[in-house]
Structure formats: C-alpha cells, structure tokens
C-alpha cells in the first residue's frame, strides 16, 4: 500500500517514521509543514494529486491548546478545514483515511470511561476544531477511521513528560493538577496501533478510542516520572484553579478501549510499562 503520513516532525509522525523499516511491504511517504502546509488547501490537494496515496494517516495538527484560544483561525484551518480537504480528496479517489483526534472533544463531566457513542461537547478551541475535523471527515464520504487518543508523549517533540523532566531538574518544588484524570499514551504504542489497523484484513470504518491502560491524574503521572528517574523534587497536588491557563481542560478524559481491542485486536500496554520504556530511551 502507498501510505501518506502528515505531521512528519510531530511525536506521532516521528514514531511512525521509526516503524517504517518494519513495514517494507508498504510505501510510507511522510510530509511535514514545508511539503504540505495544512493551512493551505491548494497545497494539500497538489501533494495528494502527485502522491496518490491509498491510505492517508492524518497525524498533523495544531496542538498548542492554550495558544489556540487566541489563534482560532489558524487552529480551525489545520484541525478542521485541512481534514475536510483530505476527506474530500480521499472520497473522490477511493483512498482510506486514518485520522487522529482527541479526548478533548469531551467536556470531562463523565464519571465512567468514555465510549465512542458518548456525545462530545468540547470546552476549548482546540477540542472544538478537532471535533469539527472529525465531523467534516465523516461528512466527506471517505472510508475513514478516527482514533481518539489522549495525553500523548514520546522521546520526540514536546510533551508533558519532557516538560516535567525539565522542571524537576530546575526546581525543588512544583505543583501539578490532581483533579484532571485520564490515561497517557506513548506515541510509539499509538503508532503500532495504527499499523495494526493498516494491516488488518478488513478496514472497519468508525470512531475508536485508544490510550494506554490504567487511570491516573496528571499529578500521579508526574510522580511516576519522578520515581522512575529517582529524582527528589517535591510534587504538590494542586487543583486546576491553582494552575490557571487560557484554555479549560476536561476533568475526566478516561477512554474506554474495548471497541478497538475487539475490532482490531490492538495491544494496549499499561501506562507505566510504556512510561518506563520511554524514559529508558530518553537517557
Ligand atoms: N499531543 C497530544 O497530547 C495529543 C495529540 N492528539 C492528536 O494526535 C495527533 C498527533 O499529535 P502529536 O504528534 O502529539 O502532535 P505534535 O504537536 O507533536 O505534532 C503535530 C505536527 O503537526 C504539524 N503541523 C502543525 N501545523 C501545521 C501546518 N499548518 N502545516 C503542516 N503541519 C503542521 C506540526 O509541525 P511542526 O513540527 O512544524 O510544528 C507537527 O509536526 C494530532 O492529531 C493531535 O491532535 C490527540 C490527543 C493528545
Ligand atoms: C507544566 C505543568 C502543567 N500542569 C497541568 C496543566 C494541564 O492541566 C496538565 C497537562 O499539561 P499539558 O500542557 O501537557 O496539557 P495539554 O497541552 O492540554 O495536553 C493535551 O494536549 C492536547 C494536544 C490533547 O489532545 C490532550 O489529550 C492533552 O494531551 O498539567 C501542571 O499542573 N503543572 C505544571 O507545571
Ligand atoms: Mg501541550
């Protein structure tokens, strides 16, 4: 298969690139911002018409959650309009689309693990534009799989784990929110899950939830990073109101992974196992 992957320089794009050698049966073409500016629909179509992929993995996105609040137009162009453009091209050319979305499409008011059938209701601009991207892809008529994931980290790119490692080396004491719970996702595991879907004998269209296994707060996540690394920073558990940010974050974003496990038999490692693996690679 010829597979085109957007967001080459991002966490997920980089992890997919690392898997390239393991899939010699596929032609994996990666594009970054320079080759395909996702805020430029003409350029998206130009690249797709040249490359003619059979599968598009849509991993590129505007992911600066706080900045998005004051940069709505660009965020919408990348997270919504670009996905619509990709979907319409794919529908017209019988290509499949595997698109990545987020737990931030939910409002965080649930108390039970979020299922694909639960109603999204985003509480920030990033989540709103990601939901619009999902809806535009579904409306395009393209054969599509949407994977909603959460709290993604990797040795590549910017993420919470790397921020925590930096802060813990700089400070004696930090505060991390304890009233937002969910599950982190090692981008390498997500990349594997995507390749499992690519390889599946049947492409079953739909929305799927994927993160690592388990349930923790950001505070527990930070504490685990500290313990695994043997650091001594004091990590105070704080409420979201003590860490004001331009964008609101959902208090609960635990995803139910049963559907993707059943339909695609994907592996879902426990968050701690994957965190240990990532931190080993960071050294
Ligand atoms: N990170 C997370 O915690 C989560 C991410 N997701 C979703 O998973 C997917 C992958 O995320 P992740 O790899 O972590 O994100 P990253 O922010 O690491 O990577 C996103 C990539 O998109 C690229 N990009 C942004 N704007 C444009 C543009 N205008 N034109 C072209 N490329 C652009 C970035 O390019 P550049 O490097 O040049 O800036 C970057 O390479 C995204 O769809 C995201 O919404 C879902 C849940 C959690
Ligand atoms: C740096 C820092 C963050 N926090 C809080 C803020 C926030 O609630 C939480 C995580 O911080 P982040 O900046 O990593 O959060 P954020 O960028 O909102 O992460 C999100 O990114 C987008 C792209 C997604 O799709 C989501 O799944 C999620 O991963 O930790 C602290 O409490 N203390 C700190 O020192
Ligand atoms: Mg962030």
UniProtKB/TrEMBL annotation:
Pfam families: RmlD_sub_bind (PF04321). The keyword Transmembrane helix does not apply. Residues 1-282 form the RmlD-like substrate binding domain. It catalyses: dTDP-beta-L-rhamnose + NADP(+) = dTDP-4-dehydro-beta-L-rhamnose + NADPH + H(+). The keyword NADP applies. CDD domains: dTDP_HR_like_SDR_e. Its EC number is 1.1.1.133. It is an enzyme of class 1 (oxidoreductase). Pathway: Carbohydrate biosynthesis; dTDP-L-rhamnose biosynthesis. Keywords: NADP, Oxidoreductase. Coiled coil: none annotated. InterPro entries: dTDP_dehydrorham_reduct (IPR005913), NAD(P)-bd_dom_sf (IPR036291), RmlD-like-bd (IPR029903). GO terms for molecular function: dTDP-4-dehydrorhamnose reductase activity. Catalyzes the reduction of dTDP-6-deoxy-L-lyxo-4-hexulose to yield dTDP-L-rhamnose. Belongs to the dTDP-4-dehydrorhamnose reductase family. This is dTDP-4-dehydrorhamnose reductase.
């Amino acid at each position: 298969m010829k597979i085109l992957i957007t967001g080459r320089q991002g966490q997920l794009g980089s992890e997919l690139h690392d898997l390239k050698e393991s899939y010699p049966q596929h032609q994996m073409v990666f594009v970054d911002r320079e080759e395909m500016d996702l805020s430029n629909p003409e350029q998206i179509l130009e690249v797709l018409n040249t490359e003619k992929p059979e599968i598009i993995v849509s991993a590129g996105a505007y992911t600066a959650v706080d900045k998005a609040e004051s940069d709505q137009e660009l965020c919408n162009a990348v997270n919504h309009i670009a996905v619509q453009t990709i979907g319409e091209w794919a529908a017209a050319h019988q290509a499949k689309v595997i698109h990545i979305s987020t737990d931030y499409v939910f409002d965080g008011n649930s108390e039970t693990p979020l299922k694909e059938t639960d109603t999204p209701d985003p509480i920030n601009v990033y989540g709103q534009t990601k939901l619009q991207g999902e809806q535009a892809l579904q409306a395009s008529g393209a054969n599509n799989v949407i994977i909603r994931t959460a709290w993604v980290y990797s040795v590549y790119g910017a993420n919470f784990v790397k921020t925590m490692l930096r802060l813990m080396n700089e400070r004696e004491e930090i505060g991390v929110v304890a009233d937002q719970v969910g599950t982190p996702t090692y981008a390498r595991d997500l990349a594997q899950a995507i390749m499992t879907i690519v390889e599946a004998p049947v492409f079953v269209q739909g929305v799927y939830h994927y993160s690592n296994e388990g349930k923790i707060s950001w505070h527990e996540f930070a504490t685990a990073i500290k313990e695994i690394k043997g650091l001594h920073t004091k990590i105070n558990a704080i409420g979201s109101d003590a860490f004001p940010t331009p964008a609101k974050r959902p208090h609960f974003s635990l995803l139910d992974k049963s559907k993707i496990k059943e339909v695609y038999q994907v592996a879902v490692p426990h968050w701690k196992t994957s965190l240990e693996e990532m931190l080993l690679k960071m050294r």
